[in-house]
Amino acid sequence: MAEPAHPAVPGGVGGRPPTRNRSGGRAYVTLQDVAREAGVSLATASRVLNGTSQVRADLRERVHAAAAHLSYTPNAHAQALASSSSTSVGVVCHDVSDPYFAAIARGVMRTAAEHGVLVMLASTFHDPSREVEYVAMLRAQRARAILLIGSGFEDRGWERSMSAELDPYQRTGGRVAVLSRHRGLRVDAVLPRNREGAAALARALVDLGHRDFGVLVGPRALTTVSDRLGGFTEALAETGVRIPPRHIVEAPFTRDGGYAAATELLRRDRRPTCVFAVTDMMAIGALAAFRDHAVSVPGDISIAGFDDVPVVRDLTPSLTTVALPLDAMGERLMGLALREPSTRRSRVERISGEVVMRASTAPPSA
Amino acid sequence: MAEPAHPAVPGGVGGRPPTRNRSGGRAYVTLQDVAREAGVSLATASRVLNGTSQVRADLRERVHAAAAHLSYTPNAHAQALASSSSTSVGVVCHDVSDPYFAAIARGVMRTAAEHGVLVMLASTFHDPSREVEYVAMLRAQRARAILLIGSGFEDRGWERSMSAELDPYQRTGGRVAVLSRHRGLRVDAVLPRNREGAAALARALVDLGHRDFGVLVGPRALTTVSDRLGGFTEALAETGVRIPPRHIVEAPFTRDGGYAAATELLRRDRRPTCVFAVTDMMAIGALAAFRDHAVSVPGDISIAGFDDVPVVRDLTPSLTTVALPLDAMGERLMGLALREPSTRRSRVERISGEVVMRASTAPPSA
DNA sequence: AAACAGCTGGAAAGCGCTTTCCGTAGTAGT
DNA sequence: ACTACTACGGAAAGCGCTTTCCAGCTGTTT
Asked: Which regions are flagged for Low complexity bias (chains A, B) (predicted)?
């Protein structure tokens, strides 16, 4: 009873205005307004609109009519707060405009749509710290799940700060799913068989007659890079072929990176007969570089990529690559995140790539 | 650190549990928890974390320490609800995996990041009704702004239902910005000069010597299609050239649509010497179709597109097109949406395209 | 020394909705 | 007709945070 009666209650205690109207012309229609218009209680209106429980038909009608008439839209924030649930998931990628991501995102978006889920998308532009920052934002948004798309980093500091965000998130019921290997994160994952795919490609290329290889790689700290490069060189080693270090060129993980790396490779000693770019985007850049330097593909040099992003089949020459079902991977990733956490253990779905020989590779010229 | 056992729980309603803990293991750390740990009031904790007003240094320290220690993350929903503001914007596009959109999205995402804004992305997969549905969801999320990317429809019904969502949204302070012409919507817009661009392209092609044209178009109800086709045919008409109706082929607005349209065109009477695909994606499909039918480009037939999506410069032959600064358009679109509504009138920013002649066009063979 | 700003920090009123807890009515059972 | 249920509908308690409104201090001012 120690409640001190405040004399000056904002808004006035006496009569609550029937219509709420903030300044600035803003005036959201609230469920309260709908209930009043329909002549029912707040609770009933809520029940009708959510179909939570049975409500007599005539009341139901009235509520719906009122809602439509007032053009009512529930406040998702209020809903989320009250029900402590959310219908949005967060997706973090490196770059929306990268066809690799775009293709995966397609599957993600479709699956999200099927489940009535809204996707919050963040682009890190290859900045690891921004990635962590975004996860924090998504956590604040109480996203139902967080999807990390794109290679993880082999970096202790990154692992630690990422875990610092992800662990509390998962502890409070958040679901996390990642594409590609992310060391140190105990989360569900969709994992392309990068090593195996690269190995299969290597064997196919050797079968074609090549013995002299070059590889265009992205930053070594990316798990995708080390896995693909590792699988490729290992399979080669098994057939007795070694790649000289000067034929492994590192550059950014992009089309322009591929262009630069290929140009650099041409400058170096003893040109290889076949080049493996660890991603299609780099291969596209390499193709352009070869064209600009009047090196014919596959006449003078063969080139192969990895991923099979949609556009590579339309290049001339069309690109030999390891095809990954990108769209389906996005689907499964979202599926993983949406599925009930059946077990405590993190689930892993492995995706096989398939070598697709196209016009960019041919036997080496004698 | 000697704080009183119980900081005098307000209201003295029985006993409020010191720690909130829902079942299911979920237990979000709340600002209340932080305040308790720091031995300050809820208000003070809030003030510290938001920098809203001055707080004594030692208290500030304690709050920050407590927040870090508990790994506290504010509940964005609660913040949004209490402050009736939101830091996310909604973006609706047709298809994330379309390079045209992807390029624009890049600019959008970058600008969003600069403003600390989270982007909620929705893909309609070319379904107009889904578009309206998403706008409703975004409205419910109280997105600060809604961006509509992609051509509008010339359709009364669509206009009406879209307006039914957008009008109340704008009335309550929501900002809307669209890319491309959207009839019937009174909103800010970034408008590519489609007519002018297509006209300039037409003239360039005529200058090359072409008189016999074919056009590959998307659904006529799309404003982008009608504008580009209109500009193209008009400019042609001015030079006395007419396109026979059988040389205008309609197909879906995609790579495969372009392939189908080109194939169909080849089947029809009297093949034109030059083909204009109203988007680059359709042109890419057409290029593939010509290749598959052994029609050499530009030897047998010339082809030009529109948009200049990043990949077309890497095709062989590289594609002649009307270049739009897609990334910058995305930037400006987001800029428009974030800028304070200075005037009541809707703002329009027009973007000029530039004809880029590349290898896919050449004078007609004699 | 009295009086007055100027700062700080706490209490509490919402933000709009969900959901539990009850009371009331309607229906059925005997 | 009377009790025992069941189905509905309303009141109200939060969900976690922001933001007024005040009270308590300290440092000035005259």
From this structure: 1-10
Through-space distance between the first and last CA atoms of chain B, rounded to whole angstroms: 93
Residue A82 has pLDDT above 80, yes or no: yes
Give yes or no for B110 touching A (CB within 8 A).
yes
Domains of chain A: 13-74 (1.10.260.40), 86-192+327-351 (3.40.50.2300), 194-324 (3.40.50.2300)
CB nearest A123 (choices: B29, B99, B109): B109
% of chain B at pLDDT higher than 90: 76
What was the pLDDT predicted at A8?
A: 32
Take residue B11 and report the two structure tokens written for it: 């209201």
B117 pLDDT higher than 60: yes
Return the ∠ at Cα A157 (arms to A151 and A161), rounded to 5°.
Answer: 85
Q: Give the closest residue to B148 by CA, choosing from B336, B366, B350, B358.
A: B336
Residue A342 has pLDDT above 80, yes or no: no
The CA angle B268-B274-B278, to the nearest 5 degrees, is 90
Q: What is the pLDDT of residues A219-263, one digit of tens each?
A: 998 999 999 999 999 999 999 999 999 999 999 999 999 999 999
Interface test with A, best of B70, B106, B311 (most A CBs within 10 A): B311
Of A19-23, B241-245, B356-360, which range is least confident?
A19-23
Closest of B118, B120, B149, B151 to residue B137, by C-alpha:
B120
- Dump the DSSP string for B296-319: -TTTT-EEE-SB--GGGGGSSSPP
Question: What is the dihedral sign for C-alpha A285, A288, A294, A299?
Answer: positive
Chain A residues near residue B88 by CB distance under 8 angstroms: 120, 141
Nearest to A315 among B28, B285, B316 (CB): B316
Whether any strand C atom is under 7 angstroms from the Cβ of A83: the reply reads yes
